[in-house]
Amino acid sequence: MESQSSTQIKVGIFLSVGIIFILGSIFFLGADKALFTNYIRIHAHFDQVQGLSEGSVVSLSGINVGNVEKITFLPEVNALDVKMKVNENFRARIRKGSQVEIRTQGALGDKFVFIIPGDPKAEMVDQGDVLEVARATDLIGVISERGGETGKIFDIINDLHKMTSAMTANNRMERLMANLEKASNSLNAAGTQADKMITQINSNGGGEKLAKSIDRMNSIMTKIDKGEGSLGALINDPSIHNQLKNMLGGSTRKNNVKSLLRTSIEKEEK
């Protein structure tokens, strides 16, 4: 009887030690080796935390390096102090000048702190340093940051909805597309005809003739602008214009003067 009791005591002690060992293993391994890890505490001051909570992930370039330890109101300014607990092993990658922002991940919209590394040549952050807050870059963050302007976005969406509804009513869009197609076909046909005309002109030497005519016309206009010839002098010299105006009296004399001018211009151009 005494021997049986001793055996039961030994079994009980063995089970107790085993249970304590298993619980200890779970605690040490499940706690992410918390007892063997050193942390530094750094801060960031946000105007709003957009749902960020204590325990949220702190990410450095996409790698989880810590958690949000505490969020408190700053008494002297209208902002929130986010205290982050970051693994000491990653301290060398967090330099002074690094920035932080609150981002959203997952379908449920979980918030986390994203650390944007600074200049690698800068000094490492110290215990208690405050990192600068960067402008939000993710869509949800931008909408949250520009909360007062979000209404304009919905107004624009509403206007677009009204416009598309009006265009699709009574098959307007279908008719509009049909008209656009007809207009496009007409333009293509006109372009084809124009190409044929240009080809015909070029094949008969018309292009060269047209170019010569344009050069000749340009030469005449240049002489007129310089005041050369009778017509150039008439246009550029106001005294001649006044004299001619005085000469133009009755209809008979007017016709004689016009004939004289026409003859003079023709001789000048030859």
TrEMBL record:
| Residue ranges the record marks as coiled coil | 163-193
Q: Which Pfam families match?
A: MlaD (PF02470)
Q: Membrane-crossing residues? A: 12-31
Q: Which InterPro entries match?
A: Mce/MlaD, MlaD_Phospholipid_Transporter
**All residue ranges annotated as the Mce/MlaD domain in the record:** 39-118
Q: Which domain of life is it from?
A: Bacteria
Protein keywords? Coiled coil, Membrane, Transmembrane, Transmembrane helix
Tell me the protein's name: ABC transporter substrate-binding protein
